[in-house]
Amino acid sequence: MTDSSLTPDIRARLTQIEDVTLEEGGTFAELTTLHLGGRPRLTVRCGSTTAVAGVVTLLDAAAIPLLIVGGGSNLVVAEGDLDVVAVVLENDGLEIDAGSGLVRAGAGAGWDDVVTAAVDAGLGGIECLSGIPGSAGATPVQNVGAYGAEISDVLTRVLLLERATGEVSWVPATDLELAYRYSNLKFTGRGVVLEIEMQLNPDGLSSPLRFGELARRLGATESGERRPVAEVRDTVLDLRRGKGMVLIDGDHDTWSAGSFFTNPVVEVAVADAVQASVRADRGDEDADRMPRFPAGEGTVKLSAAWLIDRAGFAKGHPGEDAPARLSTKHTLALTNRGSASTSDLVALAREVRDGVRSRFGVTLVPEPVWVGVSID
Ligand SMILES: Cc1cc2nc3c(=O)[nH]c(=O)nc-3n(C[C@H](O)[C@H](O)[C@H](O)COP(=O)(O)OP(=O)(O)OC[C@H]3O[C@@H](n4cnc5c(N)ncnc54)[C@H](O)[C@@H]3O)c2cc1C
């Protein structure tokens, strides 16, 4: 029979693994950017790739539930005592070959540190992903994306620990089914990314600008223009700061999990009905500006932020005294104003999802990973 208890023997074996530190009594509130969540059974910090692999293999063999934590910026965690060991990734090695553009980072490296170093080395390809919080190893998990770029554009392979077999090998990015805010690592527990490898462009220029707002801010006139990487990074960071999408200590608009809902992909007929309903209520000018992007045969991607706003949820909803509110800078971020509980946040998430559904018939799907709690 499998023993899933965290016995003194298991603890002793964990401490024997090099570069591992055990912490008792920590909370997920200390590990997440929402600053929410109760106590794991134990927090295990792993300072090297071998330590991560050793810890996960040991806990899996003992059938002890674990949660991999990078920067905690895409997690909604329940309050109370949680039957899970938090395995915190701190293997932050970084190798950059400025000549070839090949970059390798440990999963626990801060993602924006990787972007900074790449941009400083004159490498293009990830500048549009500047300022995304969290770790390098989590970027493939939901195929992070921003301002017209996704990690899938440059990711070549990941060093993956397959949890079913305990095998560690370099797996090509094509094996991860990377898609809009999705990979086969998200919600599946398939494996742990130990390191990532990216092929960047060594010519000092950004990827072709694909995102209207960014291109306009840079004064780009032709579609697909390329600009010096540092200029694009600075502009992206500026745009993100204006939306509360860069972590800033003490700014509660950034106590969030970023965009809380994914942009819904719906059938053309549904998008047409949403637009017609906005036209009837708010007039042609607003309806004609509705963001809608082709998303494959017969489907359209809508903007979750726009739908939330047009369903009647303004920035800062429901108002000053509420412990959990929409960001005052962006309707798509649900934020903790300092005293919220996970239940407050989940109640707000339900209110927004249900409000958009009853107004437009579109069900928004949350983007973060939920632990011990659910929106349903
Ligand atoms: C202010 C703000 C802005 C944001 N902006 C963006 C944005 O522009 N674009 C975007 O895509 N996202 C954005 N996000 C969401 C988030 O930053 C990303 O999803 C990020 O990649 C999460 O990294 P993390 O290390 O914090 O992951 P965590 O929150 O620690 O973990 C998230 C999930 O990934 C798993 N996981 C983490 N590391 C690994 C690993 N090495 N191997 C396997 N599984 C792992 C965890 O178990 C968990 O299930 C934003 C978040 C915030 C707070």
TrEMBL record:
Its main location: cytoplasm. One of its GO terms (cellular component) is cytosol. Pathway: Cell wall biogenesis; peptidoglycan biosynthesis. Its cofactor is FAD. One of its GO terms (biological process) is regulation of cell shape. InterPro entries: FAD-bd_PCMH, FAD-bd_PCMH-like_sf, FAD-bd_PCMH_sub1, FAD-bd_PCMH_sub2, MurB, MurB_C, MurB_C_sf, Oxid_FAD_bind_N. Its EC number is 1.3.1.98. SUPFAM superfamilies: FAD-binding/transporter-associated domain-like (SSF56176), Uridine diphospho-N-Acetylenolpyruvylglucosamine reductase, MurB, C-terminal domain (SSF56194). The active site is at R181, S259, E367. The keyword Cell wall biogenesis/degradation applies. Keywords: Cell cycle, Cell division, Cell shape, Cell wall biogenesis/degradation, Cytoplasm, FAD, Flavoprotein, NADP, Oxidoreductase, Peptidoglycan synthesis. The keyword Cell cycle applies. Belongs to the MurB family. This is UDP-N-acetylenolpyruvoylglucosamine reductase. The lineage of its organism: Bacteria, Bacillati, Actinomycetota, Actinomycetes, Mycobacteriales.
